[in-house]
Amino acid sequence: MLMEMEKMETTAEAAKDERKRKITYAEAVLEATDQCMQMDSSVFVIGEGVPDPKHIFGTTTGLREKHGKNRVLDMPVSENGLTGVCIGAALKGLRPIMVHQRLDFILLAMDQIVNNAAKWHYMFGGRLSVPMVIRAIIGQGWGQGAQHSQNLQAILAHAPGLKVVMPSNAYDAKGLLIASVKDNNPVIFIEHRWLHNITGYVPEKPYTVPIGKAKVLREGKDVTIVTSSYMTVQAMKAANALAGKVSPEIIDLRTIKPLDFETIRQSVEKTGKLLVIDSGYYSGGLAGDIIARVSENKSLFGRLKAAPKRVTLPDIPTPTSHALSKHYYPSHIDIIKEVCELANVPEGQAKAIAESERQKLPAKPDVPDPSFTGPF
Amino acid sequence: MENADDEKMENLPDNNILLGLYSSMLLIRRTEERIAELYPEQEMRCPVHLCIGQEAVPAGVCQNLTSEDSAFSNHRAHGHYLAKGGSLKAMIAELYGKETGCAKGRGGSMHLIDLAANFVASTPLVGGTIPVAVGAALAARMQKKNAISVAFFGDSAVEGGAFHEATNFAALHRLPVLFACENNLYASQTHIRERQPEREITQLAKAQGIAVFKADGNDAIAVYTAAKKAVEHARSGAGPAFLEFATYRWLEHVGPNDDSKLGYRTAQEIAEWKEKDPIKKLRETLLGKRVSTEKELEAIDETVKKEVNEAFRFAKESPFPAKETLADNLYAD
Ligand SMILES: Cc1ncc(C[n+]2csc(CCOP(=O)(O)OP(=O)(O)O)c2C)c(N)n1
Questions:
Q1: Residues 6+ apart with CB under 8 A from B16
Q2: For residue A15, is pLDDT > 90?
Q3: pLDDT 10s digits, A242-284
Q4: Does the structure show a pLDDT above 50 at A62?
Q5: Checking DSSP bridges between strand B70-73 and strand B149-154, what pairing results, if any?
Q6: What CATH number is attached to the domain comprising B285?
Q7: Active site residue A121
Q8: Which residues of B270-301 are buried (b: 16+ CB within 10 A; e: fewer)?
Q9: Which domain holds residue B123?
Q10: The domains spanning A18-201 and A215-358 adopt the same CATH topology
Q11: Cβ B98 under 6 angstroms from ligand 1
Q12: Looking at beta carbons, which residues of chain B come within 8 Å of A108?
């Protein structure tokens, strides 16, 4: 089965030949899941609400009808225990895709994820492996508050033995999900809720996007921006607003563990300036880690033309009130400010760009687009 | 016939209790109706899990509690909070994200608190407050207080480890805690038969050696009576008690709308449960047993509506938290 999947990998060239079909990120996740199930009978999907009429924001629609009750399971509200059950199934040859509507729920399963799934291959001398995917949705806005929208990717990336992917667009979502299912290790597949409705070109055929490979989304020469998931959208928005003034190079990490440092290194070597953007928290986070790697790299250290910077969430739990959350979440305007500072854009000009962008912001920036009327 | 009726009369709780149950349920109903009505204005920008149809449980249980007793709840907490005596104004302001809210706008509907009423906390991660309620009971025991504590939770919470760990410990130490389970058949859109084997939820508690009580969760008097026994049991030092109430949520899992179009439950099922409206049921008893008149009940409704109006006015007029306060209360002094 795996061999079959291997053959279906599409090269970038072949992808260009396909007619430009656009689907949403959510549809891309669904299509990847569906195709994995078709190609490999050992794949099954389990999660709270997977077969219910809301279908995890449309990412599991129709799977049960197509693949049957035995392979598309709803789940008791037993996150830790059921993670263990999936690990057991994975040890014995199945490939579970476990789905959590919010990443916050997998905190209950950290014992099984970190102590078991992440460790068993190494701890048992490579004799066992745990090929499973855990989909987790992070987010922001609409008063989800302190316990329903946490961006805790760094905690997961911290644990040795896990792979953590965070696709930022529909194409990567499909390719990375298929790659995650094929991978013989536990992979945490993190989706930002605000990406689900975003559309993009996605080939119909199955293909993989390699885990552990970042992508230069936009070439530039002035500043290296390293980002991932939804913050990639914000970074691109910032770059567009800065067009003609600053030329940033944008690297979409796609996988945060294992990290593709080589791509970052090459870019920073060129620009000498680094801004890391992460939707997670400031302390102990991904951004700090990347800056540390750049700083401790002897050849890069000497090439840095400015102190690296980061844009993250503050070290504060998410406030529910939109009056506070609008000051809590960084937007593309914060990115613009940091880029301008790194690129030595005169202060007056930088302020003018930021101000003109601020005028375009919705009055209540706690929804990704006007179609969201909450709750979600 | 007359005899049977007389007997029923004797078994009825006191009039003030009956009216208390009625007012409590009505306050919850009218408040949530108003939330549902105004939610589309998009000024309450947080998820709301309404308990319309389930009001008898919070009203009936809390009618047995004193302000020394602690209550904890889950995502569907409005009813528990109000029945325990939580401030309506502070709750509505919380939904509006205002500084005057019960959690100063930091929490929203899913994180209610009113320490004056000893409504200690509600949180939306399923099962999360069950062990915490046991901890409050442990404190009451160690501090030699006569207080008990109550954890309100839904049928799905017994699927999680925290429930089993907490009930084990509570039983081991015979702690004065009530486990109040609202079995409304669904967890979000998933029926209980897709989540649990065919056995009574109460068997789980029995297996831990915990006394169990069961009642029709849409009959406020039955809830009150069962909870009274359970509270007496817990307060007497005999150990924890588990209560299961069969009830039903009328509206969608989260949000203000009817969700019959989703198709995970039939229109007939919803209609049947609406027939068992707990407020209508108690109203019929109050009138039938001549505990009160239509006019008196009308007056209660008027008072409640006024209170609700006032709370929404207060919430809307209240200020938002200031930007400078974003980092406040990160750590306790
Ligand atoms: C630990 C955890 N897992 C999943 C969820 C998502 N979730 C929110 S409410 C809910 C169902 C709750 O059902 P129940 O406990 O029966 O209470 P009800 O909503 O019916 O009142 C679920 C699964 C959650 N909040 N917490």
A1: none
A2: no
A3: 999 999 999 999 999 999 999 999 999 999 999 999 999 999 9
A4: yes
A5: parallel
A6: 3.40.50.970
A7: no
A8: beebeebbbbebbbebbeeeebbeeeebeebe
A9: 2-317
A10: yes
A11: no
A12: 125, 160-161
Nearest CA in chain B to A326: B323
Q: Which residues, numbered 164 to 223 in chain B, qualify as contacts with chain A under a Cβ-Cβ cut-off of 8 Å?
A: 187-190, 194-196
Assigned domain for B322 exists? no
Nearest-by-Cβ selection for B189 from A53, A143, A316: A53
Q: Measure B156 CA to ligand 1 centroid, in angstroms.
A: 6
Decide if B27 is inside a domain: yes
Read off the pLDDT band of A141 (50, 70, 90).
confident
pLDDT of residue B2: 42
Structure tokens at B280: 């209508």
Nearest CA to ligand 1 atom 19: B187
Structure pTM? 0.94
Segment B288-316 shows an average pLDDT of 98
Residues in chain B: 333
- Asked, for residue B325, whether it belongs to a domain, the answer is no
CA dihedral A375, A83, B133, B35 (to 10 degrees): 10
Which ipTM score applies to this complex? 0.92
Determine the topology of domain A18-201 in CATH. Rossmann fold (3.40.50)
Rounded percentage of chain B residues whose pLDDT exceeds 70: 97
- Residue by residue, DSSP assigns B288-326 as HTTSS-HHHHHHHHHHHHHHHHHHHHHHHHSPPPPGGGT
A148 as an active site residue: the answer is: yes
| CATH ID of A215-358, from 3.40.50.20, 3.30.70.20, 2.40.50.180, 3.40.50.920 | 3.40.50.920
Residue B328 located in a structural domain: no
Backbone phi and psi for residue A358, each to the nearest 5 degrees, phi listed first:
-60, -35
Q: Domain spans of chain A?
A: 18-201, 215-358
Q: How many domains does chain B have?
A: 1
Q: Is the CB of A77 under 6 A from ligand 1?
A: yes
Q: How far apart are the first and last CA of chain B?
A: 66
Ligand 1 binding pocket includes A108 (Cβ within 6 Å): yes
Amino acid at A228: S
